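Key result, reporting period 2: structure in, sequence out.
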């Protein structure tokens, strides 16, 4: 067993204002995406100008925050929101959903694409390799907060989390598993895959497929939200249900992208 480092969720205070590590992780995600986006936009064949990335990240940030909060309210906290609709605005009480954030980003990217005269999948293919930075940072934030822990385990790296609801037995540090898969592994896969010309939709499809698979797998060792529990079979979670459409759509987009590319290539022979 490894001792859990007892982090203070508050990084520092400025008078009455408390700056939490989780908020800093969001900032790291946005700044990292902005920096790497501008770097990639400088490539002669990128089809992007560095200054376009500034607005892209702004639209994406709005999509993440608004979609993430609304998604959590609808997917994970619907009954409580029905009882108290103002609860949806109480962001300080926590509650963000990746799948809601993804939908929010897709809406934001559609609006941005129309504004700058680009096709929707041109925008999503460009932004997809930048997203894992924020995903990995966010999971580190979950770990620092000591939340979203895993199931009880006897693996040598199991940890006892400080939250009384986690009990006294070591658990999987599932936040770190997700940081490694959704953050590091997904970033490397997408960054190198997109470093060469790919058919339109292929990068977006690979993002959906890989994230969906990674999230589905980690959910087997992550404890579901207490008020939801398992939805079926004694193991199916809401996270897995929401990941299945991502996997399916990812496969469809990848197949469609390469099918169209092959047809286009044959038509020019």
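The corresponding designed sequence is given below.
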């Amino acid at each position: 067993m490894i001792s859990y480092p007892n982090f203070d969720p508050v990084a520092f205070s400025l008078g009455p204002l408390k700056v939490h590590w989780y908020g800093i992780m969001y900032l790291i995600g946005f700044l990292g995406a902005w920096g790497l986006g501008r770097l990639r936009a400088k490539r002669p064949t990128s089809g992007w100008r560095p200054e376009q990335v500034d607005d892209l990240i702004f639209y994406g940030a709005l999509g993440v925050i608004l979609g993430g909060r609304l998604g959590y309210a609808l997917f994970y906290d619907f009954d409580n929101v029905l009882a108290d609709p103002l609860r949806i605005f109480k962001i300080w009480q926590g509650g963000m959903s990746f799948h809601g954030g993804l939908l929010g980003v897709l809406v934001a990217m559609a609006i941005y694409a129309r504004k700058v005269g680009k096709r929707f999948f041109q925008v999503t293919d460009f932004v997809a390799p930048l997203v894992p930075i924020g995903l990995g940072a966010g999971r580190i934030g979950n770990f620092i907060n000591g939340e979203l822990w895993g199931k009880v385990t006897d693996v040598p790296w199991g940890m006892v989390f400080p939250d009384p609801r986690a009990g006294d037995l070591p658990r999987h540090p599932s936040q770190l598993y997700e940081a490694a898969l959704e953050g590091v592994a997904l970033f490397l896969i997408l960054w190198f895959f997109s470093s060469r010309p790919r058919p339109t939709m292929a990068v977006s499809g690979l993002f959906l497929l890989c994230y969906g698979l990674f999230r589905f797998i980690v959910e087997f060792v992550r404890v579901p939200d207490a008020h939801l529990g398992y939805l079926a079979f004694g193991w199916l979670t809401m996270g897995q249900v929401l990941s299945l459409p991502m996997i399916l759509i990812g496969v469809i987009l990848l197949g469609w992208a390469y099918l169209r590319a092959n047809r286009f290539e044959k038509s020019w022979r």
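Residues 128-267 form one domain. The first strand starts at residue 10 and ends at 14. This case is discussed further under Risks and Mitigation.
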